[in-house]
Amino acid sequence: MTMQMDETPIIADRETLQAKLGRANRDLAVLYEISGAMRTTLDLDHILYIILTCVTAHSGLGFNRGILFLINQKERCLEPQMAIGPDSGEDAQKIWQYISDVKPHLEDLIKEENVTANIQRSSLLQAVKTLKIPLDHNNPSPLVRAYHEGMPVHITPEKIGQYHNDIFLQRFRANELVIMPLKAKNKVNGLIVADNLFTQKPISEDDLRLFMMLANQAGLAIENASLYKMVRHQSHTDSITNLWNHGFFQDQLSQEIKSAHANHHVLSLLILDIDDFKKLNDTCGHHNGDIVLREIAHILKDSSRENDYACRYGGEEFAIILTQTTTEQGMVIAERIREKVAGHPFQLSADAGGQKLHVTMSIGLGTFPEDAQTKGELIAKADKAMYIAKFSGKNRTCS
Fold first, then answer.
1. Residue 186 predicted with pLDDT over 60
2. Which of 86, 162, 248, 296 could be disulfide-bonded to 244 (CB atoms 3.0-4.6 Å)?
3. Looking at 176, 223, 295, 316, which residue is catalytic?
4. pTM for this structure?
């Protein structure tokens, strides 16, 4: 007599195993592509964009939205740096229809030219970018908890109501989300918050596992990009004033003139010279001369806008590249700087008597394309205007 065994459980187990193997193979392929993408650049903004794209792209983890926070060590807080996600359900449908029709690869999505455009139009980032979340141990924020514990926090729909007073979640407006810490050398250097607001797809254990593997790579990529940015900044800054140095000035002015020409914008350049600086050095010593240079540099930084470049041109001369600035606007800025310097109480060191010192500057202004068509011509125009100010009595601005 032959007994027949039920093969149904064996078939079911085989199908489950095949599904798991299929998922594992897909995850490995995704991680391999993501790892390759993160090695394409050391620019920090581009790295952050690549990381968030990998979290939200259909060819990556596929979350609907993602916000990346970095740690501000100086102020001991979390700051949102970048966000990717549709503005609405309708916008989401358009994006997914495009993906369905075009089927873009990850390498197409992470091109450098996409970074600025996506940052500028992200309403998601606009909603949270003013937030600074203190990293105090007593802060009940789930983001702070994820930072201190160094472990992901998965807030399910059943638990989301516990955080109705959280200022970030009031703006993010999610009904389920995951907060993933990013680590380098076992130290958290960022967080990613991701959700599926529009698809309402539940966040599974498999999603969390793959997200953690991506986070391990992302934390190291951020660390490397941050170190590169620091070294690059140091190589381009003046050691005494911490302003951009002469080499950076020359390169940046070339780029800004090229951009202004291509976009039909104006560009102004200030050349600023400290009056009687040699006499100051001879009388009070070079140590006090350096004090004056540093304090003037601080005034120039405070007086410059976000898209301007304050540089040490050499010796007692400074330069400021004023992007998208007319001659009239440049004169207003120059005069404001001149008055601030003239009214500033420069303090000499104790060995030089400790008294207050009155310092003034002569400033020259040139504008592209009104005064010059090339970098060399623009520098010459601004320099000549500065010398006219100098020989017209000092402590004035000329254009």
1. yes
2. 248
3. 316
4. 0.65
